[in-house]
Amino acid sequence: MEDITLSINGRNITCPPGTSILDAAEQHGIELPKLCYHRDLKPFGACRLCLVEDEKTGRIMASCVTPVAQDMSILTESPRVNKHRRNIVRLMIAEHPESCIFCSKGNRCQLRQIAAKLGIGETNLYPMPNYKPLEQANPFIIRDLSKCILCGKCIRADHELVVVGAIDYNLRGFKSRPATLHDLGLEYSDCTFCGTCVSMCPTGALSPKNTRYVGTPQRESLSICGFCGVGCSLAMGVVDEKIVEVNPSHLSGTVNGASLCVRGHFAHDFLNAGERLLSPLIRKDGELVSASWGETLEVVARRLLEIKRENGPQNVAFLGSSKCTNEENYLFQKIARVVLETNNVDNGGYVSGQSLLNLIDEKTDGRYRIQPLARLEKEDAIFVIGADPNHSVPVVSYYLKKAAKKGIPLIVADPRRTELVDFSSIWLRVFPGSDLELINALAMLLYRKKAYASDFIIQFTEGFDVYRRGLSSLDLDRISRVTSIDVSTIEEVAELLHGKKIAFMVGHGILQQRYGRESLDAVINLLLMTGSLGHEGAGLYILARENNQSGARDMGAVPYGLPGGQSLSNDLARRQWERVWQVKISPDQGLNMVRMIEEAEKGNLKALYIMGENPLRSLPQPERVRSALEKLDFVVVQDIFANETAEIADVVLPGAAFCEKGGSFTNMEGRIQTFTPVVVPPGDAKPDWEILALLAEKMGYSKHYGSLERVKEEIIGSVPMYADPGGHGYTPWIRETSEKALFRPNGKGDLIPFSPVISTEDEVPDDVYPLTAILGSYRYHLGSGTRTSRSKRIQEFDSKGEIEISPGDGTKLNLHDGDTVRVISRYGVVTRRIRLEDGLRAGLIYVPVAFNDNDARNLIDLAQLSRHDSLGWKTCRVKLEKV
Amino acid sequence: MEPKEVDWGKLTSIIDKYSNEKWGLIPLLQDIQETFGYIPPESINLIANAMKLFPTEVQGVISFYAGFSLKPKGKYVLRICRGTACHVKGGRSILRLAKRELALDEGETTSDYQFTLETTACLGACALAPAMMVNRAYFGKLSPPKITNILVEYGKEKKEKLKDVRDEED
Ligand code: SF4
Ligand code: SF4
Ligand code: SF4
Ligand code: FES
Ligand code: FES
C-alpha cells in the first residue's frame, strides 16, 4: 500500500497507512498531551486529551485512535482543540479529591503535569470528588480510586501485558471504576501483585505501598533485576542513596517491556534490611569483630596461601554465586584456578540443576545460545514441561499466555494444575519423574506419522537410526501407565504437534529431577527429529531460575568447565587457557557444591571461600552442613547479609547488591546485559569484583584490575561467546542478530548426536511413605529465599506457603483447609498448614520452598544431590500426620 | 434474607448451549437473566471459563447493562415511571404507595422473591401517565386503588399478613 502524506502543524509528513495521527506526530517530534495512551497497549481513546483538528473539515478527533488519511491538515494546538482540552482537564480535576496535595505520585502525576502545561490552576467548577474508600490492606499496592480518571491503562496492562484479568471496569457512568471480581480487595482476587498496573497509572489512583518514603524519588537510574533468570530491565528510584521504588525501565526492546513481577517490583526493599553487612569482620577469640579492609584481606590471602602450601591446592574450594555478575564469577574462578591452582570451584546455581545447561552446549558446541522470548509469539506450538513459569519466572508466563491467547497451541505437561493450564490447549497431567517416557511416546507417534524432518536430520545429526529403533521398541500401554496419561490423550497431543516446529520450555521439574539429564536428552532428540532446533521460531528454552545462572557457568565458575562453556577435559581448550593465564590447569574435575560439603565432613577440605551463597539455607540437612563447615580450618563468606552461613565464618567480607555495582548478567535468553551502579554500597561494603581484584593483588597476582573495564576486556578477549559486544550501557552485550543467534548458519560444525532412548525404572510402592511430595516455588520468593524473606513487604504479605493436598487424600486423612500437618520423609519433617487443591492428583502433595527458613529442604537428603547431572530433589517420598 | 438457591444443573446446561459461540456472551447472559431472574454471582467463574474470558470481563459486561442484575429479583419486577409526564400527573404518590404496599425501598426485593420495586426514566407511555410496568406488561392512568388491585392480581397477600411475617422475622 502506498504511503500517506498529510500535514501536521504545517509540516508535511509521510507515513504508512494505518499509522495513528498521534504516532505520526510523535515520530516527527510533535508531542501531544495524552493520558490513556501507552505504546505497548492497544489504543483506547478514553481520555480525549490527544484531540487534534483537521483544518480542512473542522473535524475534531482523538489522534491516538484515528488513522492518518491522505491530505489531512492537522493542527494539534488550534484554539478549538485547546479549549476542549482545557475543559476536559478542568472536569477531571473537579472530580479529583483534595488529597491530591499529598499524593505519592507527586510531580510525576501526568494529570498534574498536563494541567500545569495548560495553565489550569482553578477549575471554577463545582468540585464533585468521587469518594471511594482507600484500599491498602495488602503490603504492595494502594488503590485510591477517587483519583481514577478511567483511562483504562491498568486494565489493559492487566489483560494485555500480564494476562491475569484481575481487574476490569465495573458499573457504569459516575460509579464506574476498575474493579476485581465482586469488587473485593486485590488480595482476594487473581492479582499477582506484579505492579504493572501501578507503573502504568498516570495518576495517584494506584501507587506502591511505601513505608520509608512517599513522593517523587530524587533521581532514577537503570539496572537489571537481580532475582530470576528473566533479567528484567528496571528503573530504580533513589532517595538519599536508598532505593525506594522500582518500575520497569522505559527502554524499548527489553525482555520485560512495561511489565515486572512482584519480586522485581516490590521485593527490592530487602536492600534496606537491617542485616546488611557494613564492614569486614574477622573472628577474634571466637567473636566476629570489625576490621579494616587491609587487615581482613591480608588475613584471607595469607591463610588461603598457607593452606594451599601446607595441605595442597585440593584442600581449598571456592563456592561462587549465580547471583553475582559475569565479571565477578570470572575473577572468582580465575583466583581459584590461577592463584590457588584448584578446580574446586562451583556456584550456587548447582542446586537449580545448572549443569544441565551444558547439555545443549555440548551437543552444539555452544552454537545455540540466543533464544529471545519475544519469538514465542511466532511459534508453531509451545510445549511447557516441568515448569510453573507463572511463579518461577513470571515474565516468561506473560509471553506464554499472550501466545496462547493468539491461538498458538500450548501444551502443558505438569503433575499440578498450574495457572498456565487455564491457557493451555491440552494439559498432560504427567506423573512426577515420568516426563521422559511421555516425550519418547510422542516422538514414537510422530515418527510413525512420518513427521520427521529428513533434510534436517541428514544435514545436522547423527545416530537417527539407533534412535528410531529405540523408539519403535517402546510400549505405549506401559508408558500410559507410568505417566498416568491415557493413550488417547498422548495421541491427541501427537496429532496436535504433527507437522509443527516445537518450542520446548523446560523448567526445574526437569532440571532437578532424577531423570533430568535423560529427560532433557529426550527433549533434544524430539527437537532434532522434528527439525525444530534449527528453526527460528522454535527450539529449546531453559527457564533459568537465578538471574545469572547462565553467566556463572559461562564464566567457568563450575568444577567441570572453563570460561566459555568449555570442558576441562578438552585438551585444546585447556591449553588455550593455560596460554591466556600462564599457568598449568589440571584436567581433573574439581568438587561440586555438595561434594565440597562431603569432603569437608571427611576432613579432606581445609578452606572454603563462599561468595554470595548461603549453603546453610539452600542445602538440605543444615545441621550436617553446619558441622561440616565447622570442621574447616578457614571459612570466608563474602555476602551482603549477615546470613546463616556468615555467622560461622572466620572472615566476613561485605559485598554489594547488584544495584550497588556495575557488571553484566546473562539471562535465560543468552542476552548479556550490562549495568552501572544505581547507588553506592552501604557502609564500608564494596562491589564484589573490587574485593576479588584487591584480594588477587594481595595474593601476589601480578595483574592489576583497577576497573571493571579491565575485567570485561579480558573476558571479551578470551571468551568467544562473549566476544561480540553490541555496545555498552544497556544494549545487550551480544545482539540478537549476531551470528550466534543463528543455528549453524552455513551448515558447519560437528553433527549433533541423537541420544539413546532410555526408560525409567518402575516406581516401587512404598508403604511407609505412601505420598510423593513435589517441591516448588511460589512467586513471592526466589530460590531459598535469603533475599526475599528480608523484604518487609513479602514478610507482611500473609502467604505462609501452605502445603497443597488433593481432595482425595484430604478426605482419607480427614484434613480440611487450614489444618496443620507434619510432612515426614526419611530425612526430616516439615510442619505447616494445608490447603486442599482440586488440581492435584491423589498421592501427590505440593510443598512450596523458601518459607520458614526454607524448611522444605529438610525433607531431602544431601547425598541425593551429589551426582551433578541428576539431582533428584524435585520430589521425595513422604507421609502425613495431622497435628 | 436467605440467599437464593441456584439450580446448578440448569445453569450449566444454559452455559453449555453458548460456550462454542463466538459472540455468545450477551445472549448467554440474557438467557440466564431470564431463566433465573438474575445472574447468580457464583456463576461468573463458570461463564468466564466457558467463554474463555476473564471473570472480571464477564462482571464488567453484567454491570454495564441495566438489563442484567447480580442480585436476585422478584418474580414480578415493578418499574414505576419517574419521567416528567408521570411526575406531573402524580407519579410520586404512586411510587410512595407501592413502597408502602410492598414494604420495599427502590431497588429492593421481598424476602419471598415475589416482588422487586424499581423506578425508571420515561417508559414511553406518557399518554397513559402515570405509568408503570410489571415485567413486560404496561399499566397506565394509575391511581392508588388501581395499584392495590394490580398487586393483588399478581398475588400479593393481604398487607396485614405480610406485616405479620415480617414481625416474626424480627
Ligand atoms: S486506576 Fe489509574 S490506570 Fe486505572 S483507570 Fe484509573 S487512572 Fe487509569
Ligand atoms: S498488580 Fe498485576 S496482576 Fe494485579 S491487577 Fe495489577 S497488573 Fe493485574
Ligand atoms: S524476578 Fe524475574 S520476572 Fe520478576 S522482575 Fe525480576 S527478572 Fe523479572
Ligand atoms: S490519549 Fe488519545 S484518547 Fe487518551
Ligand atoms: S414520563 Fe412516564 S411514561 Fe413518559
Briefly, what is this?
With 883 residues, chain A is α/β, with parallel strands linked by helices.
Descriptive overview:
The complex is a heterodimer of chains A (883) and B (170). Chain A is α/β, with parallel strands linked by helices and 883 residues long. Chain A has five domains: 74 residues, Ubiquitin-like (UB roll), CATH 3.10.20.740; 148 residues, Alpha-Beta Plaits (2-Layer Sandwich); 250 residues, 3-Layer(aba) Sandwich (Rossmann fold); 157 residues, Dimethylsulfoxide Reductase, domain 2, CATH 3.40.228.10; 112 residues, Barwin-like endoglucanases. Helices cover 28% and strands 18% of the residues of chain A. In chain A, the strands form ten sheets. In chain A, strands 14-13-27-26-25-15-16 form a seven-stranded mixed β-sheet, covered by helices on one side. A six-stranded mixed β-barrel of chain A has the order 31-35-32-34-33-36. Chain A is globular, with a radius of gyration of 29 Å. Chain B is α+β, with helices and mostly antiparallel strands. Helix content of chain B is 46%, strand content 11%. Chain B has eight helices and four strands; from the N terminus they run ααααβααβββαα. In chain B, α1 packs parallel to α3. The relative contact order of chain B is 0.11. Classes of the chains: A alpha/beta (883), B alpha+beta (170). The interface between A and B is medium-sized, with 16 and 13 residues. The site of one iron/sulfur cluster has 14 residues of chain A, from α6 and α11. One FE2/S2 (inorganic) cluster binds next to α5 of chain B.
List the topology elements.
The complex is a heterodimer of chains A (883) and B (170).
Chain A: E1 4-8, E2 11-15, H1 21-27, E3 51-54, E4 59-62, E5 73-75, H2 79-94, H3 110-117, E6 141-143, H4 153-161, E7 168-170, E8 177-179, H5 196-200, E9 206-208, E10 219-224, E11 233-239, E12 242-248, H6 262-266, E13 281-284, E14 287-290, H7 293-311, E15 316-320, H8 326-339, E16 345-347, H9 357-364, E17 381-385, H10 389-392, H11 394-405, E18 410-413, E19 426-428, H12 435-448, H13 454-460, E20 461-462, H14 464-472, H15 476-483, H16 487-497, E21 502-506, H17 508-511, H18 516-529, E22 539-542, H19 549-554, E23 561-562, E24 566-567, H20 571-581, H21 593-602, E25 607-611, H22 615-618, H23 622-631, E26 634-639, E27 651-654, E28 663-666, E29 672-675, H24 688-698, H25 708-718, E30 752-753, E31 771-776, H26 792-796, E32 803-805, H27 807-812, E33 820-824, E34 829-836, E35 844-848, E36 875-882
Parallel strand pairs in A: 1-5, 15-16, 15-25, 17-18, 17-21, 18-19, 20-30, 21-22, 25-26, 26-27, 31-35, 32-34
Antiparallel strand pairs in A: 1-2, 3-4, 3-5, 6-9, 7-8, 10-11, 11-12, 13-14, 13-27, 23-24, 28-29, 31-36, 32-35, 33-34, 33-36
Helix pairs in contact in A: 7-24, 8-24, 12-15, 12-16, 12-18, 21-23
Chain B: H1 8-18, H2 25-36, H3 44-51, H4 55-64, E1 76-81, H5 84-88, H6 91-102, E2 115-120, E3 132-134, E4 137-139, H7 144-153, H8 159-169
Helix pairs in contact in B: 1-2, 1-3, 3-4
The complex binds iron/sulfur cluster (SF4) (3 copies) and FE2/S2 (inorganic) cluster (2 copies).
